[in-house]
What we know:
The protein has 809 residues and is mainly β. It has a 22-stranded antiparallel barrel.
Amino acid sequence: xxxxxxxxxxxxxxxxxSAQTQQTISTAPARETTxxxxxxxxxxxxxxxxxxxxxLINATVFDLTTKQGTTTNEYGxxxxxxxxxxxxxxxSYLGYEEHVEHFDLQADRRLNVSLSEMPSLxxxxxxxxxxxxxLNTQTGKRSLSQKDIRGEFAxxxxxxxxxxxxxxxxxxxxxxxxxxxxxxGGNNDENLFLLDGTPLYQINHTMGLFSAFNVDMVKNxxxxxxxFPARYGGRLSSVIDVRxxxxxxxxxxGSYRIGLLDGSIHFEGPIIKGRTSYNIGLRRSWLDLFxxxxxxxxxxxxxxxxxxLGYHFYDLNAxxxxxxxxxxxxxxxxxxxHDALKSKDEYNQTYGNGNYGSNDLTRxxxxxxxxxxxxxxxxxxxxxxxxxxxxxxxxxxxxxNTLYESNDxxxxxxxxxxxxxxYRSAIYDAGYRMAFDYRPTPGHHIRFGNDYTWHLFxxxxxxxxxxxxxxxxxxxxxxxGSNRHIAHEISLYAEDEMVLSQRWTLNAGANIxxxxxxxxxxxxxxxxxxxxxxxxxxxxxxxxxxxMSQFVHKISNSYIDLPTDYWVPTTANLRPxxxxxxxxxxxxxxxxHWLFSVEGYYKQSAHLLQYANWMGIEPPAxxxxxxxMDGRGRFYGMELDARYHAARLELSAAYTxxxxxxxxxxxxxxxxxxxxxxxxxxxxxxxxRLSKGTFAxxxxxxxxxxxxTTPTQYAPxxxxxxxxxxxxxxxxxxxxxxPAYHRLDLGVNIHHKTKHGHxxxxxxxxxxxxxxxxxxxxxxxxxxxxxxxxxxxxxYIPIIPSFSYTIKF
Length: 809
């Protein structure tokens, strides 16, 4: 409780700075005033949309008269307070024709702007983009629009949000083909994924081959790897804020896509033209449609041993948006993702004219998925103040059941055994979000709010074994374990982005997190600060300091995102995970085509969790607290980025030099390298427009090999009275570096307009074009003749071609 006076002083300092500072985007001075005449100030506020009514996030609103500007928030809202008089307001967004509004400002003015999409973008100019790394305040921020994601390489012909983020500097992908995200050394569970404001706990399908985000529905992605604003909290390493499209307010249209392993349909349009819209997207895999008939044909010719396997996943996104009036807006966003895996193995053997024999049956049934819902009300309380109230609900569940039956029939006896094992895990979240966006002057952008979440954690396991003889039950054994935790999480935040002078900009704030479980209350205060110095029109310097807290943990014993992993809360015996991160950077734009940046970071984490003495794939539901150990992390590195934009060509390069170290005293007395401590990482990307409707892209990825733990000796073990035995001796964890990873991906998109005005898109892509078999695991054997342990790298993922066909109508 001693922290609260410090909190009050911090908030007073944040809001007590002068509200008279003026935001200056360029070095040109603002219009001078005298003591005899001080012009009145009025606010221009409103929303920026495209010509279908879709709100645009991070659009630039710039006053050409006073050289002041701002950007739209995640709800497309902007507010700019200007002196009275004539003004020229330029509204721009990448890929859209800019709009210039002329007006005489004599009172507060409401301005809703609609931008038209450019049919073809001749030149990409980033100088006017206030969300550019050159001009925004945060370090480590990257924003991706739907066009950016669709322009990335499409694995198996399906563009992917997470795999697009894996190409950013400072991010490691982990295991090949898996949608892992290891940001600045953090684990996969240290990333906060938000879908329209609701947390998403399971982000993968097919063990990570596909992510849970349907690109047809995604409007914008804001990704933070450092310099986290105070409005975000709950994870240590990164924030991925995903916003979906509202739907076309003017006309109905949609698309169909058929890919190698999945397909999708998408429809959107008005329910009440100009007022109410719908947006629905469905994606489904059809691997089961191929495997079911294939196994049926195989089993027809095999009378003794029959096997079947079926797997599918689907994503369903739906959104309704209603404009109540010019100040009020309602939206309901729903998401359901589901995976199902079923297998059946049946063995039948008969003899004695079919009267005797044995029958064995093994059946597995696996289901897992998410259900998310968000009801949002956006209300313009005043020209300078927008409020957003959101009710949220999240469910993440896993259900696994396996059945084994054995029947042995002979002349003397008839034995039957039935064993059933099951696993259930679920987490339920319900709560609200209150967010306020206040812009008193162009030099102040204040955000404050409150979040509340009610958590229910329910991991359960059970097992039944029954034995029968001569049709009578002989014995039954049942084992069951369960755990149930109810927790309450509250966060309060306030942040202010302030223009201190023509060159200095500061974003300062704090996030206060409260977590109550049982009789224990945790309170963490996380201050945040980011500062930018505009050295010149072509050079900016930045620095940031952030602390983060995490109250939930993912229990896992593998590096693949398995549905058997489950989330657990901080308890009375565990401490919340904490992190502290410093970051600095320099950003250079020598002309309108090139942008260079260099960033460095240093991060420390405490109270990290790792399994201590359990080695199974399925975590235990009971006593899991006794099987984890508390540790620390230390991560630092440097990131270099370069981007080139021209009329037909776009190039980008991202290089990362990093160190990733951990320390668990119960496991190893000193610091050791993490499995994904990849010292060097390099991504090169090329996009080239071959013709009006033909686009080619290439991406080359390289990083130092992952690490693995191998024994260094095969020697006699200590004698405990049972005779001398020999075994492997391990020097330290992750003591070897696997071979370097590299691959080349190629692709081409061909767009064609039909005579009915529909657009057809053919996509051909090749994963791992030169078929380099990268290491997935290692095979270790002891060479008795030479007296050492031999390790051999194993890689199995070859070149993978794919194709998709899309029609938009």
